[in-house]
Amino acid sequence: MLSSFFPSRTIALYMGRLFLTRTFGILFGLVLILQTLDLLSESGRVLAAPGNGDAEIWRYVSLRVPQIVSTFLPFSVLLGTILTLITMNANSEVVALKAGGLSAHQVLAPLLVASLGVALLTFAFNDRIVSRATAELSTWQDVNYGPMPVDRGDRSNVWVRSGDDLIQADRIAGRGNDARLGGVTVYERNPGGGLRGMIAAPHGVRDGDGWRIWPAKRFDVASGAVTQLGQTIVGRGVTPDQFTLSNVDGDALSFAGLRAAIADLAEAGRPTKSLEGVLWHKLSGPLSSMLMPLLGAVAAFGIARSGALFIRAVIGMALGFAYFVADRFALAMGNLGAYPPFLAAWAPFLLFLLIGEAVLLRTEE
């Protein structure tokens, strides 16, 4: 039953080959042009760092190209779909297929299967290559393309909540129970709001379920008095992970790595909603390639000699680009907390899937 849904093997391979060659041809052209423009604007900064030369330029290109490919592959699938279907329509190949008894969905079936392969390839490419390139490039840009720093796990200027109180540490070295705090300030707050006092100490280490800081002194807001406390315990119930977990860049982690980071942050009491949206988008983003044949399908049908073929192609492009705008908007709303993570990642995909099906059924089925 499934095999009867597809056209013949010869036609399926022919359409799949047309679609893939046009898609990756357009992608190659886009990457070449966009990387050239990007390099013109960024090469000055790369070469401005002492000791940088041609090797660093090529290193920048090797790290930037995967990002460009990941960003513009769905656009290439859309344009490749429209170009393939326009060509087949202009050559009356679609008319021949429909005259042979194939429905619009059967005509599009080879493109949908090929786009599924592109989606799987995109997910693997993003997970294994783009995430690593993004992490390395971000770190390199943070030091203005200079020598890469060695990450020893040290963190600075970390804020942690302990009940109503806030704890701020200027420096954190080490991990787990061996974590050492430097420049610790505890802001004691009343349950209803308002600052009650401040405790400051230059050193702090893990002690039981809290943190022992020394030599500590306390400033009382009401009286203005300063009291020397020596050694004291603060932050009971605050785990070492709450201090040592750094900010997570979802784009710089693989799917499994981001899922583990979200679990760690949730256990430490950190907000994770925006990262959950990025995690879901690592699945919905690559699958957007499967939408493109459906959204660009209007270019496949209609009589080419009627003069409406160009208008149909424009409609297909408009639907595709409207999806990308809605996808970015929903993801931004998810990052702001306005949308739930699952909705931010999947709502545009499901919405335009229904729109594409409605247009196809209304006009061709």
TrEMBL record:
The chain crosses the membrane at residues 12-34, 68-87, 107-125, 309-326, 338-361. It is a multi-pass membrane protein. Its main location: membrane. It is found in: Cell membrane. One of its GO terms (biological process) is transmembrane transport. GO terms for cellular component: ATP-binding cassette (ABC) transporter complex. It comes from the Bacteria. Keywords: Cell membrane, Membrane, Transmembrane, Transmembrane helix. Pfam families: LptF_LptG (PF03739). This is LPS export ABC transporter permease LptG. It comes from Sphingomonas adhaesiva. The gene is lptG.
